[in-house]
Amino acid sequence: MMKLGFIGFGKSTNRYHMPFIDAANKFEVTGYYTRGTRQFDMLYPNLNNHIQRFETLQSLLDSPVELIVITTPASTHYELAKQAICAGKHVIVEKPFCDTLAQAQDLFQLAKQHQVRITPYQNRRYDSDFLTIKNVLKRQDIGKVMEIESNHTHYRTDGAEHSGYLYDGSVYGHAVHFLDQIVSLYGEPDEVIYDIANQKNYYLGEGLSYQMDHTQENGVPEDHYDIKLVYGNLRVRIRFSQLIVKEPPRWIINATNATVEKYQIDQQERDLKQGIFLDTPSFGQDTAQGTCTIYFNDHHELIAPIHQHYTQFYLDTYQAIRDNTEMPVTEQQGLIVLNIMESIVGHRKYQKLI
């Protein structure tokens, strides 16, 4: 068993990490350090009541823990990851990995120097909708893929924010997952075309449009994005809005012989929010509306969804550390995603790393 410790002990730890660490059966959760005193009000039910709360970060880093999982606010990720690496710990960092490409490069280089491993927590590579689409893309009968749309629209009118920081918007907080999915398939894009805006404030609030003071790093962060990744002749569109009444298909693929539509995103997060965990047989299963259909010229075919719990991220991480092989999210993939996001929020022309 690998000894594991948390920096941060709130919603993310108890909802998005503990259930899958428990199911992996490869880790011993030794303890955690958190600055806050308030406990999250929905503790993971199988959490061992005897795990230790370390009173200082240094006491956690001085412990026999091998792997540190950082689930604190994004602005703290870089400094905390540096401290964990320098203490000789392997590190998993919640999304977004850090704020800038330079910070990410520094962390990967530092990990090599200290002979430890570090990876972003990109659990949505194990989403059922993505795994289903990933499998469909391997099929020869759909022909050559021309366009892929990854839609993340819904109708949620609450929570308009009137101010925030450069990295507080939807690109770093939301698009990071879905950019990573595409990068895991196709690698570094040739070109990135993007449009970001704030829709809630403008249409529902005080009429404030997207604005950001890049010197002071404050203003009105974006809550809408439309990102196009260009791979030769292939176009991949990733789109997000919270003011769309009727949700479009989660995925649309246009290929020379077929069009593919997949409705609904993975249901694991929905179940976890309702206190439904992996011991429930229906956990993470698609609803009747979550269909995937391939439309050919003269017929159509329904595709059964592929399910793989986020447990697999931890199993893959465990194996990579033990066998000294590549982590689930490679250094190159992590840097590509950061480069894309930094280009977008910085309103600068995207330049390839390689």
Record keyword descriptors for this entry:
Dihydrodipicolinate Reductase, domain 2; Rossmann fold; six-stranded parallel sheet; eight-stranded mixed sheet; 16 strands; globular; 2 domains; single chain; 354 residues; 23% strand; alpha/beta; 30% helix
Concise synopsis of the structure shown:
This protein has 354 residues and is α/β, with parallel strands linked by helices. The protein is 30% helix and 23% strand.
Assembly category: single chain
Q: Give the class-level CATH name of the largest domain.
A: Alpha Beta
- The total strand number stands at 16
Radius of gyration: 21 Å
The fraction of residues in strands falls at 15-25%
| Largest sheet properties | 8 strands, mixed
Q: In the CATH classification, which architecture of the largest domain applies? A: 2-Layer Sandwich
